[in-house]
Amino acid sequence: MIKTPKGIEVHREFEPDMERMVHALKVVLQSKPVEEKDTSPKDQPVKKEETA
Q: What is d(CA 46, CA 38) in angstroms, rounded to the nearest whole number?
């Protein structure tokens, strides 16, 4: 049996929150993916800042 490192054990009071978080992640992952906007530097105008 492998012991979990100190500080990583899940407390009973936080278990419902973990379940809700996992459920929310599943919903997000199963939902229709939004088209990613291409935010590469090539598409954006280059702003040159002059230092005083």
A: 15
